[in-house]
Design goal:
Blueprint lengths: L5 E8 L2 E7 L3 E5 L5 E6 L9 H16 L7 E5 L5 H9 L4 E6 L2 H10 L8 E5 L2 H14 L5 E6 L14 H9 L1 E12 L12 H12 L6 E6 L5 E7 L1
Parallel strand pairs: 5-6, 5-8, 6-7, 8-9
Antiparallel strand pairs: 1-2, 2-3, 3-4, 9-11, 10-11
């Protein structure tokens, strides 16, 4: 037994160990720490288990409706986990096209094999470093706005939390170029987890928030949502 379940799959790459742990009701993904990276209910795989996932998906759905349900609505997701949000959006948004960029091939393989991520043309999975991917995509978007996305979701975590590279100004300048006019950019960030400090930002989260406070050109609005059940902080930016 581990993490209140049985390990049904484990794999290791240069970034460490991943484990899929199952019990009677759930199946969970771990990155070599007790922190759950993804979770599905075995009898209801489309149900979003985490409050932050529910909030992010609701923000995408809201944006889709506000945009009058456009055809070929394009979503870019940085970070895959078990693919639960992509699975939910695929079934809830008509004509959606989803691209998921995930650093680790073993995570992609686990999402399809153990977490029921649909293997369909509407969902494209790319094994790549998300930071490098955005820097290259921004160059394409400068040349042709058709490469831009309606919504971009940034949900990148490693075993330690937010990767430091995620707070680099160069990344944020580039990702802004990848969002369509009237598009939406959503970050899943992280506050401190110690009891009583849930409203305190980690250093990386503070750097990201500071960047977007200071760089408001072409931004129509931005909102923050602190999750009640965890230390996740959702930053929603409308262009």
């Amino acid at each position: 037994m581990k993490y209140d379940g049985i390990i049904i799959h484990s794999a290791r790459d240069q970034y460490g160990l991943i484990e899929v742990v199952e019990n009677r009701s759930t199946r969970k993904l771990y990155f070599d720490t007790p922190i759950e990276q993804s979770c599905i209910y075995r009898n209801a795989p489309m149900t979003l288990n985490f409050e932050y996932q529910q909030k992010i998906v609701s923000l995408v759905n809201e944006h889709f409706q506000n945009r009058k349900q456009p055809k070929n609505y394009r979503v870019l997701m940085l970070g895959m986990g078990g693919g639960s949000m992509a699975h939910n959006l695929y079934h809830s948004l008509p004509n959606v096209q989803i691209t998921i960029v995930e650093l680790r091939q073993i995570v992609i393989d686990a999402a399809y094999r153990y977490f029921q991520l649909p293997n369909v043309p509407e969902i494209e999975s790319i094994q790549a470093d998300a930071i490098e991917y955005i820097l290259e995509l921004a160059l394409d978007c400068d040349d042709n706005p058709l490469f831009q996305y309606d919504a971009i979701l940034v949900d990148i975590f490693d075993a330690e939390g937010l990767p430091p590279e995620l707070s680099a100004p160069l990344f944020h300048d580039a990702i802004a170029d990848c969002v369509k006019k009237k598009g939406r950019l959503i970050f899943n960030l992280w506050n401190r987890i110690e009891p009583g400090r849930e409203h305190e930002h980690t250093e990386d989260t503070a750097d990201i928030l500071r960047h977007w406070q200071q760089n408001v050109e072409n931004i129509r609005s931005q909102e923050r949502y602190l999750m009640k059940s965890t230390s996740n902080l959702i930053l929603n930016i409308d262009f």
